[in-house]
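Hey,
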Amino acid sequence: MNSLIQLDLVQLSWALGMMAVAIGLSAWQKLGLEGSLAIATFRTVVQLLAVGYVLSFVFELRDPWSVLAVVLVMLTIAAVVARNRISKKVPNLLPMVGGSIFVGAALTLAYTNLVVIRPETWYEPQYVIPLAGILLGNAMNAAAVAGERFVSTLNNSQLEIETHLSLGAKPSQAIAQYRRDAIKAGLIPTINSMMVVGVVTLPGIITGQILSGVSPFDAALYQILIMFMLAIATLITTLLTIQGIYRQFFNQAAQLVLH
């Protein structure tokens, strides 16, 4: 396998030409996306350069506390983003979503590290940071999709839910279908990706490994592992998120409380 071709600033400046073309096309077609594309381009460059610099330092340091600090920052951002997408009116949603994402990602990462990969040290940044980033990002999206769907459905189904309650149904029975639909919605992107991975799409991990010179077969094995990790992590996260939201919508008297 050939070694990775290193990109320099000159080559990256030429890469910016693609975004210049995109902005030009937006202006030509009067789409009004020029500002958004320019801001997105700027943020992409700044954020990824900053992350690259920080992670280079962490990788050289190889200290468990620095690795955990990076993961904690990613977890905090993921929790805030997911909470904002779901709702800002549901009480205690931030710690609830943050805890759900943490449990889903932590259990999956711990199993992968201890049982599957088994690196020399559990905090090996080469494995912990990229795998944690992938898990947190997908768990965040799953929690946001499922949570937003669940909150919206509960708020829009007051009459139906209260009818079930008045007929003697428990709160869990009254919202059972809404719960299932929300969890399925959160899992659909992951399941769809698993259905077509390698056939229609080549995900970032396998693409990055192939570009870096890793054997395509070895890269495929890692991608299989990652897809399985995403499936269990997103399922655990959505289950816990929906359960937490459910508890906020019913009081101790089993009455529906809208938010």
